[in-house]
Amino acid sequence: MSDLMMLQSFHFLRPYWLLLIFPLLVIIKSFYQRNNNLRVWRKVMSAEILQHLTVNAGKNNKLTPKNVTVIFVLLACIVAAGPSRKQQPSPFSEDKSPLIIALDVSESMNQSDIQPSRLLRAKQKIIELLALRGDANTALIAYAGSAHTVIPITSDSDMIRHFLNPLNNKLMPKSGKLPQATLPLAQALLQTTQVPGTLLILGDGATPETARQFNRFFKNHPHQLIVWAIGKPPLQ
């Protein structure tokens, strides 16, 4: 089965080089016909007699300079075409849709109803998501009572991981919880792209006003919203 998969993925990186084989074959054939001194005699003389009257006529020497040249030219065309068993991703299939990650770092995210804490669990989820996305375009926003761009849209996931780790409520200039404060920042980031994007909110709470503002924003923009709720609901 593995051999079959390898055969299916076999392709040429530059297949247009193979087109040179056809004119080269025509040229080589014309050289053979022009240099064949016996061609005229074969038309008027018996093949048995011609064989006995010519030197080396009965021998079949395949390693002549002409044959070696033909083999070399054919191999050169194949090598130039770039045979490969590794399928290259098409640049047209590249995912250019940006993802804006908005992380709630307010004081309530320090609760430990989800171990080790809501904030650390949210960070773990972001790291897992970055690993799945690879080098896709991603940005990071942190919010509490205000929102701030941590990393603008980038394909460097390692940079996002580096700045993600120290985020906490002590770094925020304003306490509270306003997820809707991320909307102007997300809009400014997404305006730099040519395709619709996604805003991912990771937090543990919102208000009816938050819902109204998010509903109004996404009605007027082609982007999508994803919410990952962090924390356990209170017992009734």
Automatic annotation (TrEMBL):
SUPFAM superfamilies: vWA-like. The chain crosses the membrane at residues 12-32, 68-84. Keywords: Membrane, Transmembrane, Transmembrane helix. InterPro entries: UPF0353/GerABKA_families, VWF_A, vWFA_dom_sf. Gene3D superfamilies: von Willebrand factor, type A domain. It holds the Pfam family VWA_2. It comes from Colwellia maritima. Signal peptide: none annotated. PANTHER family: SPORE GERMINATION PROTEIN (PTHR22550), VWFA DOMAIN-CONTAINING PROTEIN (PTHR22550:SF14). Residues 99-205 form the VWFA domain. This is VWA domain-containing protein.
